[in-house]
């Protein structure tokens, strides 16, 4: 399967990018780089892609395993190299689950399945970054 996107320059440092979903997004540089901050930053967008890919896996597994989760979020901290081309060499990914009846063992399995088997974006990141994956449980 091939995904095709078209990214069109809108002037200055702003671009509009199509997506197979039909929802377009804007990409722009910060003011310090000649942009107006009217869109996503490309490297940060990669991190959102990583969180979204893994998040979709885990959400699907939560549903499939019939797990009770009140809140689920993924926080990512990534270190950008200083030399050009700058890229993420270390990525910390924190899965946070909140609920009254969390099945920690099954939720950990859901995260592991995404990280080790299902998430293609994770596999891409593995090619250039050291990943640190952590799962946190917040019982209320």
UniProtKB/TrEMBL annotation:
InterPro entries: KH_dom-like_a/b (IPR015946), OsmC/Ohr_fam (IPR003718), OsmC/Ohrsf (IPR036102)
One Pfam family cited in the UniProt record for this chain: OsmC
Name of the protein: Osmotically inducible protein OsmC
Species per Swiss-Prot/TrEMBL record: Neotamlana nanhaiensis
